[in-house]
Design brief:
The structure holds 2 protein chains of 2 kinds.
Chain A lengths: L2 E5 L2 E5 L7 H9 L17 E4 L2 E4 L12 E2 L1 H4 L7 H8 L9 H14 L5 H8 L9 H17 L1
Antiparallel strand pairs in A: 1-2, 3-4, 3-5
Helix pairs in contact in A: 3-6, 4-5
Chain B lengths: L3 H7 L34 E4 L2 E4 L2 E6 L8 H13 L6 E5 L9 H5 L11 H11 L1 H4 L10 H28 L7 E3 L2 E3 L5 E3 L4 H4 L27 H5 L15 E7 L6 E5 L1 H4 L4 E6 L3 E6 L2 H10 L1 E4 L8 H10 L7 E6 L9 E9 L11 E7 L2 E6 L4 H12 L6 E5 L13 H12 L5 E4 L2 H6 L7 E10 L2 E12 L1 H10 L8 H4 L11 E9 L13 H18 L4 H10 L3 H14 L9 E10 L2 E11 L4 E11 L6 H21 L4 E2 L2 E2 L17 E7 L16 H13 L17
Parallel strand pairs in B: 3-4, 8-18, 16-17, 20-21, 24-27
Antiparallel strand pairs in B: 1-2, 2-3, 5-6, 6-7, 8-11, 9-12, 10-11, 13-21, 14-19, 15-16, 15-18, 19-20, 22-23, 23-24, 25-26
Classes of the chains: A alpha+beta, B alpha+beta.
Chain lengths: 154, 744
């Protein structure tokens, strides 16, 4: 029996076994490839998406267990209409290879939702599950702080 | 089913055979022999292998792989600077495999001179040797050479295109081309009339692009400035296309399981796996199996359910035995003695110092595991792969599936990190074989992280034995021996089918080629004959020799009772001014005094690599709850800085890559297989333990240096030297977490 998910505001029927992780539903079945596979064991954060606004590692959430509305990087903003946090990423020229950045941005967006004015310690605590092999951390930190300020001023 | 030809047209790039309408030209005579691989369609024009214009816009073809280092942006700026293209009008694509895109600079690195001592004559000779690159079809991204290689070629392409556009516009306006000027992607007549470049695409087909002089550096608008990266919006919105983001109709999803002992397969039993959910086919790859399913995760589950009997490894089965073999090679005749100044065998007065160092095998562990998408049809093979060597990928895939190279089309996609790993073709060939087993069905193949970690082409474990003398506060003698498997031999055998003759310069780079005046100075390279698969790991030989050599220099400074920074500065001043300049710069930037509070340690290190001298000062702090790196100051001299922000990012990135390895990176072997499997046992720096950085870019060196790798080598000894300053304990073995309580 198909499972019904709401992804980026759109309802979709998914005809896959219930144990298939949300990551692979998004990438292979729905065609939303902005969410990335890095490790499969929640050790890198590349697959981070939101379920009801909460940042989750989509490689660890089975299709049958998805408990709310799913938002992926594609749902956060688009090239023509970027979310504030994405604009901050562009303005700070954060990405290098870019592969981890969807996960970094989704994780940072959830952080700013819960902690609108994060300290360095808050950023360390929230972001240390997101690995970046290019080492873009200093620019990620700057972009998060900048986005926090813009969101508060908006 | 996706149509091979239709896709080819859509992406503008048709293999390497079809040449229609393209005009190869330029200052480099030798390039006239290399056909333009771009085939313009209707209403499109290609002026040279780097530029394609149609009514939609201007596409710049980057002959090098974008794996995060920002090379697409800088290569585009080289063309746009001369061509007067508005920055926002530019699209950048990877070039197809083609002779026109050979890397001239890469081969120049293999010459046995001391690179830093380049005179104009040697520089020319180095470029001349690079011509061989065309013959070898060396379309490789590596050796931090991309920008150096493209610096003149791509500016010429832009300049010539600009003049061709003026000629086309002059014919339409009925005026003299000499009276026209160009700005913002348009040709402007004296009376104010304008024609957009895109409107001239059709007319350009009849124009032979002229050869023109390059503009003076003082007029640059884009070059020398930090430009917005051309890939930044896509990478911030999840729309950047990596190899397995390729969208094709009726895709199937594949994964592989290969021998963790890196040899063959005795037998396999797929009876249980075949019946699992979603599984379509299980394929015998000879050295492993592939599973094709209707979902990647279902393929991964089935792959794990296949019962496989593997062959044994062709190398000793555990780390202790491998290291014993490395150590034994010190007793063999050296492969190289490239540096042999003075006489290291003559008696010297002073204090003798000896030290032995050891570093482990390392994995690249790119964020994106190895992967590729492939489609095999009656027309041939089409493959989408993030790769650093498309010509090699094309030829190896053709060979593997029984096609001619002309029947294989390689699309180089964006790469989720390369660091040297994506110069290999193994994963592309697998995707090709899987696609051939399912003709007409596009296959998206993804390795699990565990396959990626255990099937890397590793940075070799290496050892060094150093002996030195100091007297009167100066180094009198350095005699270093370096032992390891040869990356050059191991990879050349695989990529080119043969071992290059002569001394292996890469084996001793970072030690033998360092710009220090030491009266008696010898470095010998000893090669260990083992078959553990090796590859180019960011900064290659410099990654271990930089640690060995600079750590020994630090030990000598302490033995000589001289400030370690001043000790290096004095030796560099006597040999190479730009190297002295970067050491002086970190002295100023860090406010170096040679003294630190009790809970603080500082270390300095210096390595000249890929044409760029880099000095780094690292400050560590004992927090009482583990040691953390507080700050890292970096100074580099790149000769000409084309994009300062990208250079700064690469220096920081290179240092973080080096710190990650120095702090905790280690691949060990047991039962013939790598023991580390995922990020939980092969981790890297993260947000919480990354220090603050300050970077200064100098431009005094006479020739342009690379930027992607030179930040890595000095980071490791700088950290070790800082930890010595903090604790008084000298770690001669990496990783450092074996000796110190680091915050990981």
């Amino acid at each position: 029996m198909p499972t019904t998910l709401t992804i980026n505001g759109k309802t979709q029927d998914i005809d896959l076994p219930g144990e298939v992780p949300l990551l692979w539903v998004l990438r292979d079945e729905v065609g939303l490839t902005g969410t990335k596979f890095g490790c499969g064991v929640a050790a890198c954060g590349a697959c981070t998406v939101h379920i009801d606004g909460e940042a989750v590692r989509s490689c660890q959430v089975a299709l049958a267990d998805v408990w709310g509305d799913v938002t992926t990087i594609e749902g956060l903003g688009t090239p023509d209409n970027m979310a504030t946090i994405q604009q901050a990423w562009v303005d700070h020229q954060v990405a290098q290879c870019g592969y981890c950045q969807s996960g970094q941005i989704m994780n940072a967006a959830a952080l700013l939702d819960q902690t609108p004015n994060p300290t360095d310690q808050d950023i360390d605590d929230a972001m240390q599950g997101n690995l970046c092999r290019c080492g873009t951390y200093p620019r990620i930190r700057a972009a998060i702080k900048d986005a926090a300020q813009r969101i508060q001023e908006a | 089913m996706a149509n091979f030809r239709k896709i080819a047209r859509r992406t503008f790039l048709i293999g390497t055979v079809a040449i229609a309408g393209g005009v190869a030209f330029g200052v480099y005579q030798v390039r006239k022999d290399a056909p333009n691989p771009l085939t313009p369609g209707e209403g499109e024009a290609t002026l040279n292998p780097y530029i394609l214009i149609n009514s939609d816009g201007i596409t710049i073809i980057a002959p090098r792989a974008e794996m995060g280092q920002g090379v697409h942006t800088t290569l585009a700026a080289l063309v746009a600077e001369e061509m007067d293209v508005a920055w926002e009008d530019i699209t950048v694509l990877h070039g197809p495999p083609a002779q026109a895109y050979y890397n001239q600079a890469l081969l120049g690195l293999a010459l046995p001179f001391r690179h830093y001592a380049d005179t104009a004559f040697k520089h020319t000779l180095r470029q001349g040797v690079g011509m061989v690159g065309k013959l070898l079809n060396l379309q490789v991204t590596g050796g931090s050479t991309s920008t150096k290689d493209a610096y003149e070629r791509m500016r010429h392409a832009g300049a010539s295109a600009r003049e061709a556009l003026k000629l086309a516009a002059a014919a339409q306006l009925g005026t003299d081309a000499g009276s026209l000027r160009t700005e913002n992607s348009q040709v402007i007549a004296p009376d104010g009339r304008t024609i957009a470049y895109t409107a001239l695409a059709e007319a350009l087909r009849d124009i032979t692009p002229p050869d023109v002089e390059l503009r003076d550096k003082s007029t640059w608008k884009y070059l020398g400035k930090s430009m917005p990266r051309t890939d930044m919006v896509a990478k911030s919105t999840g729309t950047a296309q990596y190899a397995t983001d390729t969208k094709l109709d009726d895709l199937k999803f594949a994964t592989v399981r290969m021998n963790p002992r890196r040899s063959g397969m005795v037998s396999f039993d797929d009876s249980a796996a075949k019946t699992m959910a979603g599984v379509e086919q299980i394929i015998d790859l000879e050295d492993g199996i592939a599973v094709v399913a209707n979902n990647t995760w279902l393929a991964l589950q089935a792959a794990n359910a296949v019962e496989i009997t593997w062959e044994d490894a062709s190398y000793p089965a555990d780390t202790a035995a491998l290291l014993a073999a490395v150590e034994a090679s010190f007793k063999e005749e050296p492969n190289s003695v490239i540096r042999d100044d003075g006489d290291v065998t003559a008696p010297v007065d002073g204090t003798e110092i000896t030290a032995t160092y050891q570093v482990p095998y390392l994995a690249h562990s790119t964020m994106e595991p190895m992967c590729a998408t492939a489609l095999y049809t009656d027309d041939g093979l089409e493959i989408w792969a993030g790769n650093q060597a498309p010509v090699i990928v094309r030829d190896k895939c053709a060979e593997a599936v029984g096609l001619t190279p002309e029947q294989v089309m390689v699309h180089t996609t964006l790469m989720g990190g390369g660091f040297g790993r994506r110069s290999e073709y193994d994963f592309s060939v697998q995707a090709a074989k899987i696609a051939k087993a399912m003709p007409g069905t596009p296959i998206r193949m993804t390795w699990p992280r565990e396959e990626d970690m255990t099937h890397d082409f590793y940075r070799p474990a290496a050892m060094a034995q150093f002996r030195g003398f100091v007297a009167d506060g100066e180094a009198q003698l350095v005699d270093g021996k370096i032992a390891a498997q040869s990356v050059t031999h191991n990879s050349s055998r695989r990529l080119a089918g043969q071992i290059p003759p002569g001394p292996d310069r890469g084996h001793v780079e970072g030690a033998a080629d360092q710009p220090y005046a030491i009266p008696n100075f010898r470095v010998s390279g000893h090669l260990t004959d083992l078959t553990v698969p090796l590859g180019f790991w960011r900064s290659v030989g410099n990654s271990h020799n930089g640690f060995f050599f600079d750590t020994f220099i630090d030990e000598m400074a302490h033995a000589a009772k001289v400030d370690p920074l001043q000790f290096r500065l004095k030796m560099a001043r006597a040999e190479h001014a730009p190297s002295a300049g970067v050491i002086q710069a970190v002295y100023e930037m860090s406010g170096w005094t040679g003294n630190t509070p009790d809970n603080i340690g500082r270390g300095v290190a210096f390595t000249y690599s890929f044409g760029t001298p880099v000095a780094e000062v690292v400050e560590v702090e004992d927090t009482g709850n583990g040691i953390r790196i507080n700050k890292c100051w970096i100074a580099c001299d790149v000769g000409t800085a084309l994009d300062p922000r990208i250079i700064e990012s690469q220096m920081v990135s290179g240092a973080i890559y080096g710190f990650s390895a120095a702090m905790q990176g280690e691949i060990t072997f047991a039962d013939g297989a790598a023991e580390q499997r995922n990020f939980y046992d092969y981790d890297a720096m993260r947000m919480h333990n990354t220090p603050a950085f300050e970077v200064r870019i100098l431009e005094t060196a006479p020739f342009m240096g690379g930027v992607g790798e030179p930040g890595t080598p000095p980071s490791m000894p700088a950290l070790g030297n800082a930890l010595f300053d903090l604790t008084g304990t000298r770690a001669r073995t990496l990783p450092l977490n074996k000796t110190f309580d680091l915050i990981l």
